[in-house]
Structure formats: structure tokens, C-alpha cells
Amino acid sequence: MSSNKIKVGVVGLGAIGNHHLKYLSEMDQVELVGVCDIVTSNAEGKAAEYNTSAYANHVELLENTRLDFLIIAVPHYEHPRIAIDAFKRGIHVLCEKPIAVHLNDAYRMITAFENAKLQYPNLQFGIMFQERTLPFYSKLKDIVSSGELGTLARVTWIHTQWFRSQTYYDSGDWRATWAGEGGGILTNQCPHTLDVYQWLFGLPSLISGHAHIGKYHDIEVEDEVTAYFEHESGMIGHLIVTTAELPGTNRLEIVGDKAKVIMEHGKIWIHRYPEPLQAFTRTTTQRFVTWDITPEEITIDPAQPSGHKAVTELFVRRLQGENIDLIAEGIEGTGSLTLANGIMLSSFQGKPIQVPIDTDTYEFKLQELIQSSKYVKKPILETSPEEDFSTSFSKNG
Q1: I need a labelling partner for 354 at 20 to 30 A (CA). Which of 6, 104, 278, 288 fits?
Q2: How is the chain split among helix, strand and coil, in percent rounded to 5?
Q3: CB 305 within 8 Å of CB 313
Q4: Domains identified in the chain, total number
């Protein structure tokens, strides 16, 4: 690709779409050639603000702007259709999380991408998993990957920094409905948490999920979830999430054979054992033991590039010909979705399920929920387009 600016379009001009527009306007290496929203006034208003062209239909955007890549920031069900339309035209895609609502749709996207690459070999597909760039998560990745913790035994993650009010849920007719969003906290807020979990530890072999539907809000989807995972290695995992706690908690404990790590309040502490725990357990003659371990705080670089802009900048550099890794390739979107769909399927069936999960059964259940829904949305409360959406992003642990 030439050294000219990379031409980008954004489809979906809600809160997250507007966030993309703001940082794109600060990037010298890109040119915003079009914006798209089914609400014509939104598209026209943002086009005027950012001196670009407005479209009410994503196909018109794809056909008329000669863009290089598309950022997809629409409601989740629309991700596959729009991405597939872009791939067919050889247009690169950077898609907001989650990749799709259910795995069958995600696999359709990936198949379309792979088929399009036969005609467009340099075609790129990325997922906006910007929380991988946060300094405490990237440092945890280094620690876990290094093996210094030894064989992992337990991971417990309490992540309840996702508070959402009833006003939030009432702010869009698609929010927190089976037909509009396809789920609740697992589909909207926690794809990042689920992604980081599987990024650090891989997918489990067994999932036991317990999801509470509308426990704290007037919604028809889950707003509190507890899950238990079993991994082939023997490691077990726990996940506790909700949108109904203030102040929320983000505490991750990783217990290995050689050390234990605790992340909380944006800091990481490592407790290094004097000897491997399992060997000590089997050989010590002491019946009761307490190790007096002084935890070591791990240095984190708070200034490292992070967030949506960092993900997009790497994507643009890939398009400019640099041989660099993306934060997350498109196919990596299936990991978090496997956990989300698996937790809900386990909860619906009232039993643990094996991974890989039965994707057809989950899709059938989702369609059943949509068809049988008797939930009636309250009148939509308009949200100011200038609302600071960044307050919903994770900034610390």
C-alpha cells in the first residue's frame, strides 16, 4: 500500500462510534472518508463536524468512498452482515467487540474473511479488544507466559466495575434485549473480561454458568453472572461479574505452583514461594504451615500506549505494510464468545457443558428467547451525544 493516508470509514455513530471519531481526527496517518448511521441526522451531523461524507446505508459507504478499512461500531447482531459485505469488496475490517452475538455468526464472518483472502491476499481483520493494551493486563500476560508462576492451579476473577443504571438500559431500544443485543453483561460489558481471561489462560474444557436475568434492573437479559471453569491442565477458574455494584471490584488472583499473583487497584503483587508448593505439600513433615512471604510489587508502565487508539494505530501500521502483530486478529474474537455463549448455555440447561460447545443448540435457544419475549421496553430516554463514554472504560484494576 502506498504512503498516502489510509482511508477509513465508521459505521455506527452511537457513543462508541463517536469515541472512534474523536481519536481518528487526531491521527495524521488516516483520512476519514465517510460516516454511516441509520439515523440520518446523526450521520449528517457527524459528517459536518468532521468534514466528511454522510451515509445512511453501509453498502453506500462501502461502494462510494474508496475506503481502505471500516470500523464497525453498530449493535452486535449487525457485525457479521456488515463485515461480510466489506470483505466481499476487499475492504479491511476493525470490528468492535463482541465479534458476534453467537458463535455460528462468528464462524460465518471468519469463513467469509478466509474466502475473501483468496481474492484479496492482504485483507486484514481485527477485533477491538483494547483492554489487552492496558498496562496491568499486558504485564500479567508477560508474567503468565514466562512460566515463573509454575503450573497454574486456580484463577479467581471478581470484576464488578461495570455499574450500569436503569437510565443506561433505557437509553436505547436495542439495549438489554434478546432481539436487540442478544444478552446482557456477558454480551455488552464483559467481552473484554472474557477475552483477557482466555488470552491469559486459554479456554477451559468445562463450563458451569449461573446467570441471573434482570435481577437488579428492569431488563430481560443477565445482569449478574457467576461461572466456574475447569481446564485440561487441572487449573480451575472462577468468574464473578455484575452491573449492579458500587463501588465495583476488579480483583484477579492467579495461584501457581511457584508463586501467587494478585492484581487489584491497577497494581500487581507477586508472592514468591520459598519452594514449589506441590512438592512441599507432599514432602513436609509439618502438619500446619504458614509461609511469611513479603509480596513484591511488579513495576507497570502507566505511560504505555493503550486504549482504542492504540489498537487502531497498530491496525493502520499493518495496512501500511509493516510486519507487526495486531492486538487481536479477527479469529481471536471466538474465544470470549465461546465463554459467553457457554456460560449462558450452561445456565439455561442447569448443568455443566463441555467445550467446544454445541453452537446450534445455543443459537436455537437464543432464537426461542427472541420469539417468546414478552418484554416491553420503556420509552427511550435520549442520551446526550456529548456524554463522556470513556467513563465506561476500564482504566485501573
Answers
A1: 278
A2: 35, 20, 40
A3: yes
A4: 2
